[in-house]
Design brief:
rod-shaped, Immunoglobulin-like, 3 domains, 35 strands, single chain, six-stranded mixed sheet, about 375 residues, about 5% helix, 1 helix
Length: about 375
């Protein structure tokens, strides 16, 4: 290369070095909020509008290419970037996501030498994502009866926050009932309803739904049966429920609570068509003389003055072969007799006998001469019902 050529190349390089350079960040005199302040959105989700600031010079002109730094001040949210530059109109924007817990959130934007501006937003629970059981699951009750405790659920968004004011619908798909059929969640995302079991036995389900979320709540229905509530304390004799009883059968036994002496015992207990006497179920107790014959009766007359009254009596034989000459010694705790009733299929629920309204109820123990040893008021009897 000649000397003149080298001079020309150097001159061209020098001229090239004098051309325009890459733009540098501009320093604004102030930042103001342009858009995105005071938003309300779902906790843990991006806000619907970007956070935007505008940079101005001291004489009020928009400042392009100004560096804006962003930060999360409170609430646990996040920003898709922490540094942006203003555009030709002096605007810089960022996408903000609220923290996962409902409540206030703040974000800040600042430029070098300029006071920060603060964006405020409020996170609220999002759409229902799932339902959790608070209480009332796995209850057991009588078929067609109300469960003892309400069904209580909590509706949650996808971040586990209780959803306020969510519409919860309740369904009983197996013949039961729920009241009310629709509820709204409270400030904790909780809703409740009362449930009544259907007529079937065994496991039953109740459904709670909110949006696309649902929950099955299990309960168990016991069959309708004969229920005999224990007599009030006291009585020389007591008509008790034997442990051999079940939901469909009731074994009643007449028991002494103190030492007694007598020859015959029995009771008349008003019942109705919902029960029947099991044939041959009358069993003697201490009044059986052992070698003699026991005179006994157990019946529910279908007509006449004793219609629908369980008539039960037992006596040692007073004369003839196998007769017993004396009253029997009855120790405390001894059973005098027992009898079995069974529930008629399809029986309706409701009371059958209430000792507070005894009606034709009588009971007692007599000696061989026919004198009362224990009279009706001294025989404690319980309440009988179908439920």
């Amino acid at each position: 290369m000649s000397a003149s050529t080298r001079v020309l190349v150097a001159s061209l390089l020098a001229l090239a070095g004098c051309g325009p350079s890459a733009p540098e960040s501009q320093r604004p005199a102030s930042l103001v909020i342009a858009a995105g302040d005071d938003q309300v959105g779902s906790a843990g989700e991006p806000l619907s509008a970007k956070l935007s600031v505008r940079a101005f010079s001291a004489d009020g002109r928009a400042v392009p290419r100004a560096l804006v730094k962003w930060s999360v001040a409170s609430g646990g949210g996040n920003l898709h970037t922490l540094r942006t530059h203003t555009d030709a109109d002096g605007i810089a924007s960022v996408v903000a996501t609220l923290g996962p817990t409902p409540g206030p959130n703040t974000f800040e934007a600042v430029a070098d030498g300029v006071e920060a501006v603060v964006f405020r937003a409020t996170g609220i629970p999002g759409a229902p994502s799932r339902i959790e059981l608070v209480s009332g699951g796995n209850q057991t009750g009588d078929a067609e009866s109300a469960l003892a405790n309400p069904l209580v659920v909590r509706v949650l968004d996808r971040h586990g926050n209780g959803v306020i004011g969510a519409a919860v619908s309740w369904t009983a798909p197996e013949g039961g009932r729920v009241d009310p059929l629709a509820t709204a969640t409270d400030s904790n995302g909780v809703a409740s309803a009362r449930a009544t079991l259907g007529p079937g036995e065994g496991k039953q389900l109740f459904w709670a739904r909110a949006g696309d979320a649902s929950l099955d709540i299990a309960a168990s229905a016991e069959p309708i049966g004969l229920v005999y509530r224990p007599p009030a304390p006291g009585g020389k004799l007591r008509l008790e429920r034997n442990s051999a009883s079940s939901k469909s059968t009731l074994v009643l036994e007449l028991v002494a609570t103190q030492p007694l002496r007598g020859f015959s015992a029995g009771f008349n207990l008003p019942v109705d068509e919902r029960v029947r006497l099991v044939p041959g179920s009358l069993q003697p107790g201490v009044l059986d003389p052992g070698t003699g014959t026991v005179a006994a009766v157990a019946t529910i007359p279908p007509a006449g003055p004793m219609k629908n009254v369980l008539v039960v009596g037992i006596s040692q034989k007073a004369s003839g072969a196998g007769a017993t000459a004396e009253d029997r010694q009855i120790p405390a705790g001894a059973k005098l007799l027992s009898v079995r009733l069974e529930l008629v299929p399809g029986a309706a629920k409701g009371p059958m006998f209430d000792p507070a309204k005894p009606g034709r109820y009588v009971a007692g123990l007599r000696d061989k001469a026919g004198n009362d040893v224990v009279a009706t008021p001294e025989v404690a009897v319980g309440r009988l019902e179908v439920r």
